[in-house]
Amino acid sequence: MKKFSLLAVVLLAPxxxxxxxxxxxxxxDTHGFFFPKDGQGGFAALASVLKKGPQPxxxxxxxxxxxxxxxxxxxxxxKAVKILNKMGYDATTLGNHEFDxxxxxxxxxxxxxxxxxxxxxxxxxxxxxxxxxITPYLVTTKNGVKFAIIGLGNRVPTNPATGYMFxxxxxxxxxxxxxxxxxxxxxxxxxxHDSVEDDKxxxxxxxxxxxxKFGGRVHIVFGGHAHKIVQNxxxxxxxxVESGCYVQNVSKVTVTTDDKTGKFVSxxxxxxxxxxxxxxxxxxxxxxxDTLREPGIDEVIGETTExxxxxxxxxxxxxxxxxxxxxxxxxxxxxxxxxHNNGGTRVDMPKGTITKRDLVEVHPFDNMISVVTVNGxxxxxxIKTGFAPRSLFTYSGLQITYxxxxxxxxxxxxxxxxxxxxxxxAKYVIATNAYIAGGGSEGYLFKKIADSDKKQVGDKSIRDLxxxxxxxxxxSAPQTGRILEIK
Length: 487
What we know:
alpha/beta, 14 helices, 30% strand
């Protein structure tokens, strides 16, 4: 038996030698979260993982790095660029928040990158060519393996991409593939700022179609945008990977290639949580990050009695944190109804002492408050459209109930105002933030409301309202149940 086992090992050894492995690390939606939070995350922890892991490696990102914290907001994305450059990323793609500083800020960010921003579906309107510092793909060799990396930018930027245009992503991918395949790559990767599990935007993303149309030509798709974690999701031989957000984790993908031909054999992914006690922190990167830290931002401004969670409780689609924010907006505007987009709330409000940094991380946008006059018919449509399938909005002054069918889809939505159903022809004055009032992102229906029915209230942002609330005393979580499932 021992002789047979030894003989088997000898005979099989050449087969193992025919394969080699190369590691690709992936992040997405880093949003300026440079530092750890509650013992997890940050670029110093990521750098420690990279240095301890196999060498050499590829490091790629799926976009939305430019904004999300006070460091990125105050530098208009350039501090994010500095740390990405320092980390030695090989490529990124174009996220929607790369336009947070409008179309004039975007080219400054792109120019400052010391590695390629890939977006095969993104062009200048006037020239119909790729903008400066944007390229459709990158072909690079790591560990003797030739990788082709193609980028597809997000087509719905947070601000109008004036002067730019997006084309259909699958058409752009086909065009890019035809070019890179002439260079005979061993492994083809697609970087996208979209998700295979997007339950926020209410539309079927194209991402899964990459497998259906390009299986065998594309090997790995790295996604983002929805802040989801996706590991070892295969479709038609294509591996789909998403790594969450805020530099809390990194995905490690091990790519196996034939050592003789160099061609792709297989790939598998592993999520590595960046828990400081386990990963440690790289001293050089940690010191560099300290030079990026904004002064005064860690000043204590108040206290909470408990965690104000951004996620709803079971059977309810409103969360304590979003309820608190939308009530502040309604009180400030002096209306009886207010609407807050849940996507604007990024993280929980922690328990205990609260700093200015906490407020920025909860709501990094400088959104002012607007009041909008709408009729009941519009308001009902807006609320019903906002279930996709979870509620994209939180409401103050309304009571909403719903039922779900056997497949979990929401149906039979009932909306009450002052205990009575909305009237189609009645006028309602609501408060919301200026971004939603202007029709931004999930607030697109507001584009149908005339500008004459919209006006800004005061000069305070949502973050200002939160800070003012802490000045009045300790903050507790309001009750939920405004959007309630009926069994």
